Amino acid sequence: MVLVFRLIGESFRFAWDALRQNKLRTSLSLLGITIGIFIIIAVFTGVDTMRNKIQASVDKLGSNTLFVQKWPWIFGDNYPWWKYVNRPEPSYRDYLSLKERMESAQGVCFEISASSRTIKYRSNSVEGATLNAATQEYDRTWNLEFQAGRYFTENEGRSGSPVCIMGAEIAEGLFGSDDPIGKQIKLMGRRVTVVGVFKKEGEDMMGMSQDKNVLIPMNFAKGIFDINNERYNPQITVRGKESISFEEVESELKGQMRAVRRISPGQEDDFSLNKTTMLSNQLDIMFSAINIGGWVIGGFSILVGGFGIANIMFVSVKERTNIIGIQKSLGAKNYFILLQFIFESVVLCLMGGLCGLALVYLLTVVITHLADLEVILYMSNIVLGIGVSVIIGIISGFWPAYAASRLDPVEAIRS
């Protein structure tokens, strides 16, 4: 152990001397490692930040929630739209049948939405709001948080009372600092009483937020527009019970939907059961491709940097040939000489790698302050950058170190 620490200490000293005595040569050689590590870790940091933020948005949908819809959540160039275009939309009748039949569901909810609506209160108005209508089970299929007021009562939902729950941005736009609870707003020509305000969430990476939404009971919405119309994107949301596995809930839902639609055995489904894992899988594919691109681009820089380090090590061996001869004549083993130069190569690569990591960190600080987007340099990426630097140092330094360890002591001292 003492020998290892001594080797490391000497390697640091020799590496520092090489950097100090030949600043330009060593700096240019380390530049390739610095750029390579910077590109790889910057790409990985960006991907991890985007992935975590998008995944947080996806998680809002619920890991044990299924969405019965016309179109599946799949992406790609070969999207077979012709298979789905003639499918029927989920209907209110489908919802009623599922609500009676589903035993593993915590909640079954029918939802529609109408975008780009204008909400008014006296002389104030908010444009671009999304009007959502849902059955009473909406609070069982979604995680709702309120900053004021409450959810619909059973009686309000059943009777179709003209009440609503609005997002925080809409409440601020219409009422400012005033309390909106109990006040009447105007939407789609109807006067509606505000009973609740959703907690402010802020815009996420997928644009999913309740801040600009207004929620009304489904039975009230029936008097405003056709709730089964395709233009309002009808869907049935099913959340399974916590005590029952997601696969069981999905299997039961599929079977019940086929029974409701009277689909014969062997006949293809005329509906889609969408779930968050479908989005997660697509994200994994997309980000994996970006990671590969980062490795390829950064790999070329690291390859050039590796050759630069190897060149420095060959020069270092040449300059210290007589010292190597003296060390070997005094009893130094071949592995001692080998490790000495390998450690020196690793130290040089670590210097370049740490410079690359420092640049990535500075970039994350700048983006976080200027773009209002929190970018985090994760510990896993720091370890990756250091690990890649060490591996490149070992590979680049091995052949020069091996050549140094095989030198003949007498010939080396005479040189």
From TrEMBL:
Its main location: membrane. One of its GO terms (molecular function) is transmembrane transporter activity. The chain crosses the membrane at residues 28-47, 292-314, 335-363, 375-399. InterPro entries: ABC3_permease_C (IPR003838), MacB_PCD (IPR025857), Macrolide_Exporter_MacB (IPR050250). Keywords: Cell membrane, Membrane, Transmembrane, Transmembrane helix. Pfam families: FtsX, MacB_PCD. Residues 296-409 form the ABC3 transporter permease C-terminal domain. It is found in: Cell membrane. It comes from the Bacteria. GO terms for cellular component: plasma membrane. Residues 26-254 form the MacB-like periplasmic core domain. It is a multi-pass membrane protein. Belongs to the ABC-4 integral membrane protein family. This is FtsX-like permease family protein. It comes from Pedobacter chitinilyticus.
